[in-house]
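Annotators were shown the component list below and the corresponding predicted structure, then asked to write short factual statements about the assembly.
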Amino acid sequence: MNDFWINETVDPAARKWEEFYRNRFAHDKRVRTTHGVNCTGSCSWEVYVKDGIVTWELQATDYPQLEEGLPPYEPRGCQRGISYSWYLYSPIRVKYPYARGVLIDMYRKAKKESLDDPVAAWARIQDDPQMRSRYQTARGKGGFRRISWDEAVEIAAASTVHTIKRHGPDRVAGFSPIPAMSQVSYAAGSRFMSLIGGVIMSFYDWYCDLPPASPEVWGEQTDVPESADWYNSRFIAVVGSNLNMTRTPDTHFISEVRHAGAKLVVFSPDFSQVAKYADWWIPSNPGQDTAFWLAVDHVLLTELYAQRQVPYFQDYAKQYTDLPFLIEVEDGIPGQYVRANVLDGYQDIENGDWKLLMWDEATDAPRMPNGAIGDRWAKEKKGNWNLKLEDAVTGQAIKPQLSFIDKHDEVAEVKLDFFGNDGTITRSVPVRIIETANGPIKVTTTFDLLMARFGVERGLPGFDAKSYDDEDVPYTPAWQEQYTGIHRDTLIKFAREWGRNGELTNGKNMVIIGAGANHWYHNNLLYRSAITALMLTGSVGVNGGGLAHYVGQEKLVAHASWGSIAMGADWGMPPRHQNTPSFHYVHSDQWRYERGYREYDSLPENHPERFDHTIDHQARAVRQGWLPFFPQFKQNPISLVREARRNGAETDEAVVKHVVDGLKSGDVEFAIDDPDAPESWPRTWFIWRGNAIGTSAKGHEFFLKHYLGTHSTAIAAEPTDHGVAEVTVRPDAPIGKMDLVVDLNFRMDTSALYSDIVLPAATWYEKDDLNTTDMHSFINPMQAAVPPAWESKDDWNIFKAIAKKVSELSAGNLPDVVEDVVMQPLVHDTADELAQPKVADWRTGEVEAIPGKTMPKFKVVKREYGRIYDKMINLGEGVRNNGVAAHGLTIPVADFYDELARKQPGARISADSPVMPSLERGRQVAEAILALDPAANGELAHRAFEAEEAKTGLELTHLAAGERDIRTDFASIVAQPRRILTTPTWSGIVTKGRAYNPFTLNIEQLIPWRTLTGRQHFYLDHEQYLEWGESLPVYKPRPDHAMLSETEESLAEGQDGQLFNYITPHGKWSIHSTYSETDRMMTLSRGGYPIWINNKDAANLGIVDNDWVELYNDNGVFVQRCTTSARIPRGTVFVYHATERTVGIPISPRRKKRAGMNNSLTRARLKPVLMSGGYAQFTYAFNYWGPTGVNRDTFVYLRRIDKPSYNGEVTS
Amino acid sequence: MRVRAQMSMLFHLDKCIGCHTCSVACKNLWTDRKGAEYMWWNNVETRPGTGYPTGWEDQDHYKGGWKRDKDGRLKLRLHSRASGLAKLFFNPALPELDDYYEPFTFKYGDLFDSPQGDQQPTAEPVSKITWQPVEITSGPNWDDDLGGSDIYAANDPSMNGIDAAIRDQMSEIERVVFNYLPRICNHCLNPACVGACPSGAIYKRAEDGVVLVNEDKCRAWRMCVAACPYKKVYYNWSTGKSEKCILCFPRLETGQAPACAHSCVGRIRYMGVLLYDADRIADVVSMPEDQLLNAQLDMILDPWDDRVVAAAAAAGIGDDWIDAARRSPVYQFVKVWGMALPLHPEYRTAAMMFYIPPLSPVISSIEGNLTRLDLPDEREDFELLEDLDKARLPVQYLANLFSVGDEEVIRKVLRKMLAVRTYKRRQSVDGEISEATLALLKAAGTTPEEVEAIYKLTTIPTIEDRFVLPPYHREMSIETLNDPLAYKGATGFGQIEPPRRGA
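Structure shown to annotators:
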């Protein structure tokens, strides 16, 4: 051996060639920016620019540190994000405006024939069914032509004006998801929609990212710990959340906290990527986690509540949960909470139907504590909305009695509904008998009822568990085995460690939960079963504890100011917010292919239902004001106001009366009551920042058919009798409802490919914007590293251009001032929450039709279409005069509005009015969002706490005192990510580097939850929940394929497939569909979107790894190569969500058309109980409440196929 | 003693996410061009699996690395110098395109340009070499996350020696498991690529140990490709030059961690200086197999030792590099705590990248149709501390990767890691440390002080803690060719000429 082998070299001359690589690394500048939609990572990136070209990106690492002892956030950014720069100059980049050639030719001809009038030209096309069909059938089938910006904008505006004029503004719809990730870009379209009266479609519920259990239990959309707070936990259960895939930049906190002493248990049917970190991997059967957690709850209640009591848990339950509240038991049926005003001392109190009772140990009597929702909306006696354990009238201290087990008047039987094979089970609760205005009633505590529900043995008669081995008694550890496939011993060990950790750490138990749990039909029950284990161990509102739900989560921290701008509140515009699951279920006609929820939901035996089909519930929910629905009426709302005025309605009230009278008489019809009538169709659809037709389209093939009127691989048949009671079922489902689909996009994705007009949007490295998340507590900027490439423009400028054209084209087509009547449901965080103590239908005469009480609200709005553009680019005085609002708080901002107007002066409304802040450029919109929100402006945080003090009677402003001088503006976040401030528009305390954990404000400062009791709810007493058997945590079985009727037609096609449960977990190589088709991700993922199955299942079907396979059911078809693996459970097929049909998709041998995408196999099914409304936390808010777009219960056939063709001969 | 400094990277595999951000960071910077498409200087493998290129560890096939002949002398497995010349034009050990993959892309333009037809257009896959339609049958990450596990994981060369019953269980719910193995060039002390290069184009930089292929001198013999047992030298088919991981020296020279390490979002990577005694390389790499690992680790010098410091100074290693060596997180994990190991020391290249082996979940059993975790009856914080044989990933497997099959080496590391976890759990949950816990630490060969230090560097290090980068005195290197002041004014002017093929 000698140095020859090692060839050590020093000589710089011999090494001069090294500049070969140094030259590559040389760059001209680095720009801080981030990635702007879908992904909620909110990572700070540095983009490297050389010679005016973006060359690559690397993570910024300068996040401020949180508390000492927490790992830092750096670096943040994953394999997807670091691939983004490919898009800018890639061949899939949309560089110019495009339109379908057949439509362009038609339009140009029609325009010539219409004296160059674009609106008339558009009307001419729409009035001719043949023309309409010609361009609709061409959708998605090539033939794009590059056109000018002017022409593209003109067509979009012409369709908009035509739709408003002919059908009404509520037939123009806009869809864009996840505003937090690029708040200005989202606001561009939503502000435009608000100003014209268009429909703003929700996304969080449609994506099935909304966990309905969160509104149910906490009255909160979603509020979760930032990822650094995982590090404070000491026992983490990961349930259906594959953190490596979905929370890539946060996953290090999981690996790290294990080395800080935390135990980690991972629940997933497959050996998932996060399972590698687990101490225990528990492979419970897919979708059966509810059974597991209910049995855990059974053990906790038995050992830590019945056999002994833990002081911390007892105190927590009494102060922060509804467990001490009294429930009436009548004829063996638990009913609603007992209302305070049935008692003598409280008879005449304000909002007495909305104040509740608990039993005071000290006086041995029922008492009305502070904090119920009646206190929240008090007009007379304010300042009682808090969690102090005091009598709300006398101020006397209350010592809540959790259970009547030791002292009761009698033991009452209760009949409880169980599902599966269990039926109704009789158990017992100890009750007290109290005298009320209506005579004596039996009451029990929520806690006693919970013990009965879980069958905890307490020496009472009834069907309780004698031991954990009692297999027949729900919910014992032995009972759950049949569902989960997990041995009882393992469950008991888990439950005991969970309980012990909660006890030793005062609640540092955390459940990290995700789509693997939330995408099942009964997701709310699954979540509640786990939340129960958290509440029972005092873990919610504690750093290191609680429910960490991460599914498409997005946290737009500055939502108070942003909401005003994005939803046109500054111009006094009530937005038309639409819950998208209902919209698509109805309008894409997916409702017609099923017989409704009765086929797959489980209902108690002893509650007769009034209606037969999901759509009946949908229709009823709309007329009762529980859910929105657009179009509102079959009539044009503008014509309706005109008609009212013609009939002598002088005031707005009279107009509303005209509408209500019309609804009662039938002269005015809800569109939902006849959804397939041409008058009820949506017409013009704007899509931006999203993939509404592709990966967001559950029931994608039905979209192609009923919205677009083009080809489809669905073969589903409608039932001969739909079983519909409330809604008109037209004999033939309409084909091609949409007149025009406009897509703003930087890439030719599935939605762009199927749209009529594709507008080239700036990429995330080409615009200024804001970006926040709930994964961390910083505000990040998006900045243009290079200008928008080729002819692209940022979203703000695109919608400005459309607004300008709409203003222009409205002349001669729409009057200067137009009156519109906007229908809105009863809304959360307003006094609407007190609307309906009982469920009653005005149409059947059970109750009067009263807008805002028993039916929707109606508001008359003046629109000036000629001034849409002016309003778009100036921040209206509404914000100055009314402040910004969130969580039911109003925060005055006039001084900051004026300051902003000085910094970025815009126009004046009239010569003598003051200058408004300009919103002409995206950067200015970002500045306005930051300047006017308590999360970024310390003075406003202080004012928000002042407002909260007035409501609660608590001292709170000290929480904002230390941060009062902070003003976070755009320049400061460009310099370094800046932390959000502590504000009551959120629920966590973050001062001094403390990690954000939700509800710490509630726990530590005694601010109530925004629920009926003001506490966290185990019990849900909305009458519809009682009917559905979901008042307490309960197990309901998974719908099976026989219940779903989506495989019958496919079976008839051929017998060569095998049935699998089809799930679409988050993939490794994409964030939803974004990044998936990039060179890098395709190369790292086998060049496609492979289907994953267990290797033994594969062998049985004669499938070898990398063979082609076809997945199909009645909803559609999907063809890909197959990956076989031992880590996949038997009987389940995985397709990583979400695929594009633009790249490498062959023709389906079976259906002879282009095989679709992952959503070609799904269909939306809604859960009616989630349509409940008009009642406390069960009131509508955008992306907060409503049924969700579940899709994990899908079944498909899978078969091996020979190599299919991309374009040529079709073989089978 | 001849002291040399080596820039070394450490991978904490217990933290690896398997996200491949590192791979893409590297690719964006260095291999995003014609001829380099298939090069993954940094790649991440799922283990068990066959990695990239497929089955690279099978040295019976690829003939990489060195072997010790019966006289105890070191020889390239590929060839002797004499026979090497004969293989210049035909080398059967050279990996072929099928062992890598045919780079592909898609005809995205068809989405814009297709005329209106009966079917929706889609972008077909095409080869990046021929631009003709291509069947995609392999890739640089083909067996990711146990994809095709019955073909790939089952044939992992490092599964050799593992009990057949355990191997069977690893494809069942009882024991299915995987972990990730990120790999870059090991910048070896005894690099086989250097030894095999007929042109003398490959060298080890004296100041930091980075191994480079001189693009001016490379003559496309590709012996390096075959000789590297880690298959981390690639041949650029477009330029006719070999290329490999350069440890991002342009970044190191400017005080920035390599792109793969910088971008490591799992925070598993650490960078630091190791001092070693170059005089001992020849002896060390010729040791009998059972002594190789310890011998290699012994070669790494203590930067606090006065004799080492003096010898380093004599070798021209400045105080600031000594300081960096003392603060090196790699030195801490490798030498002070004994927790990190080189990959396949039996290849005898003295690889200088180090790995901390990972933990894995406890095994389970199937009773009837129920899954039951294999947990002891008594309460344990972390069950595996008492019985590492109940870890899903067999200790033997890790030993085959990192310790020439010596299980005890792996057990020591894992026990220490579990001791840290147990200590921190009892400290933060119980609020106190009992005698039993202290005894447990002692049995695991550690102390409360060491546990705290390991804990801190494992979980809460900042970027400055993870990457302790020494100052490169570029002005002194440049000065040998140019006046730095003149260079300041003149650098960057002129046109850049890439190396010419065959030149």
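Statements collected:
1. Chain B touches chain A through 144 residues (CB under 8 Å).
2. The radius of gyration of chain B is 24 Å.
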